[in-house]
Amino acid sequence: MANIKSQKKRIITNEKARLRNRSIRAALKTAAKKVHAAVDAGDKAAAIAAAEGACRELDRAVTKGVIHKNQAANRKSGLMKLANSADAEAAAEAAPAPKKAAPKAAPAKKAAAKVEEKPKAKKAPAKKAEVAEPEAEEVEKVDEPTEDAEETEEA
Known about the structure:
This protein is mainly alpha-helical. It has helices spanning about 5-40, 45-65, 70-85, 85-95, 105-145, 145-155. The protein folds into 2 domains: about 5-95, Methane Monooxygenase Hydroxylase, Chain G, domain 1; about 105-155. Helices cover about 85% and strands about 0% of the residues.
């Protein structure tokens, strides 16, 4: 336990805030579970209503400082997307999509494409050699003495 009076007060207020934040977080989890339960049941109207209630809870948590506003926005987005997909999931379960057979010729084309790409990769070093030549010329130009340099050497 702290000896300083202000630290004793801070410990007490932190504990109160921790308990308050814990109850708010629990309420957020419950609201999210209600949305998930409505989606699993296939009831789109109930899912959207539960998602709107969860959005209100998330907004309250932001104003209380329990969660960050960006985290609340991400959670709201995910819950609304889930609630709106409740109708689509029920339709997908009723009529499963037919399975498509993958063509076996496709891997051979990919292998042929890789073989064609290898000569292209060999051309890249040739471009580097062209760039290196002007640099060599510049070095030679620097080594050559200029007329001004000859005049200063004679004097």
